[in-house]
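Fold in tokens:
===
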Amino acid sequence: MALLVGMTLMSILIAAVLPLASAEAQRDKEEELIFRGIQYAEGIRNFRRRYGRYPNSLKEMFVTRPRTLRKLWKDPMTNSDDWGIITATAGAPGLTPPGGPSTPFGQSTPGQTPAPAPTPSPTPVFGGSFGSPTATPVGPVTGVYSKSKKKSYKVYQGRDVYSDWRFTEASLQMSALGPGVAPGPGVPVPNPPKTSK
């Protein structure tokens, strides 16, 4: 009888702890997604500063010497190297650019600072996410995002779906401002941190 009661209590405890452990693991993956996304955004910014243009693929940042990316990171949410790519010409699917849908890249609406227009490379060498020399070029890469459509625990830059988390030069500038600082025209303001009572 005591063994039966003990097993029942053990199963109740396991049932209570599993969701908490799963949520904690998901939060760890979210932090890793932010870290890896920022690594890509930093690599893209450094590549543009060093070579005067945006990279044509993620792989180009790793194979071009000197490197601007120390490794090709996987997306922790999908456990895949197939990142969503934000290009200078097409932008990111599903999101409206800061100046509105009709604002051309490199221009702005009144009162906004114009976005920097990238210097296009005449002949892309690498294509795809991690790409092979024969893959279709994706164009100048300005950022990455996860392809996971799941809802997140964390709200990152005002968004709570992983595929809406964008990692670009603009997101680096916003992160550098810190909480409670207005990022200026054209940059979305993140949700303020929640305080516990």
In short: The beta strands are 84-87, 141-145, 151-156, 159-161, 166-168. The helical segments are 2-51, 58-63, 169-177. The longest helix spans residues 2-51.
